[in-house]
Structure formats: C-alpha cells, structure tokens
Amino acid sequence: SAVISQKPSRDICQRGTSLTIQCQVDSQVTMMFWYRQQPGQSLTLIATANQGSEATYESGFVIDKFPISRPNLTFSTLTVSNMSPEDSSIYLCSVEGRDSLAKNIQYFGAGTRLSVL
Amino acid sequence: SQQGEEDPQALSIQEGENATMNCSYKTSINNLQWYRQNSGRGLVHLILIRSNEREKHSGRLRVTLDTSKKSSSLLITASRAADTASYFCATQINYGQNFVFGPGTRLSVLP
Lengths: 117, 111
Fold this sequence. Notes:
The complex is a heterodimer of chains A (117) and B (111).
Chain A: E1 4-7, E2 10-13, E3 19-25, E4 31-37, E5 43-50, E6 56-57, E7 68-72, E8 75-80, E9 89-96, E10 106-108, E11 112-116
Parallel strand pairs in A: 2-11
Antiparallel strand pairs in A: 1-3, 3-8, 4-5, 4-9, 5-6, 7-8, 9-10, 9-11
Chain B: E1 5-7, E2 10-14, E3 19-24, E4 31-37, E5 43-50, E6 55-58, E7 61-66, E8 71-76, E9 85-92, E10 99-101, E11 105-110
Parallel strand pairs in B: 2-11
Antiparallel strand pairs in B: 1-3, 3-8, 4-5, 4-9, 6-7, 7-8, 9-10, 9-11
C-alpha cells in the first residue's frame, strides 16, 4: 500500500485567488493522479502527472486553470488558479499500487475541501 | 463520458440487514473495483475483480461481475452503522490506463 499526505485538508478562499495543494507519497511512484469531486458527485479525473514531463489533462481541464508540478517521484502539487465559487470541491490526489498485490489499486489522499466565496 | 452507473443512488437499511449496490458500465474492461468514501474524505479500496472472474469475497463483502451484462454488484452482509458511507465502482479498461468512477451509492445503516 501507499501512504499519501495531502495538504491543506481544507481551505476557504476568496474569488480570484489561487490555492496550491500538495501531495506527498511515502514511496516513489511513476504516475500521480489529481481528481475533483464536486459536492454530492463522483470523482472526475483532472490530470495525470508523470515525473519529468508535462501533465496530461482530461477534457474540460486546462493547464492555465490547474497547473501541476511533479518535481520528483514522491511529490506533486495542483494549483487551482483564479478561483470562482464553481471551483468549490474536494480535490484528491492518488497513486497506483506498485507491487504485484497492489497493482491496479489506487490509493488516495484524504482530500482537500475547498470553498470559494 | 462516465463509464459506470450505479444504483441505487441512496440506500437506507437497518443494522444487521444486507445491502446490495449495483454498477453498470459501457465498454469492455480489464477490471472493476469498489471503493468506500466516508463523509467527504479520501477513498479506500475495498475489492478488485478482474474481467475473467465472476465472484470475489472479502470478509462481509461479496462482489459479482457479469461481463455479458456489463454489470457488477457489491453485497455487504450483516451491515453495521460503521458501514455508513458512499460506495463507488471504478472501471479500468486496460492496465495503466485511467480509472473511471461511477456516481456512487450513499449507504446509511441505521442503528
């Protein structure tokens, strides 16, 4: 299994500002995933972050709005830029298990609950 | 587009009863997984079933997979108040590719 630390756990932000969410994993992983979960909804993949290359964004998400950094194999950040109330969601990072028993399983951080006023 | 659809959207049962949740998907998959989410926190993996498997058990959990109907069910037996959570199915078309999550079922187990 993987232990993922995500911070902040929650924040309340003003419209037009930006928030950077950090995700730290206790082991080296190739890919890290960022999800958004709007209130009462399921998870939607924002982007996949590989170390040493540009993140791959899903349809409907763009780098200018959600810039991602992946400086090494254990850390990533997601920034929510120029926030509006529609960005109020839970943001989750995850990684995929590496060993044969955990392959195909995703491990999640506890999430960042963002409220934009 | 979302791969999985779940029903019911919400389920309320008494402690000790069984809870059954269903998930349907649209395309062929490599595996299907069930996750639990407590009160808006991170998801916890429950069980994985591969496309060549029909049934798996883990403790009080039983998962079935019918690839001909593109559907899966999660059965929680002898439910407890601590099982109150949202349950999501997630499908993966091929190993290494993205997971697609269903809309989830909100389960309430009343003491």
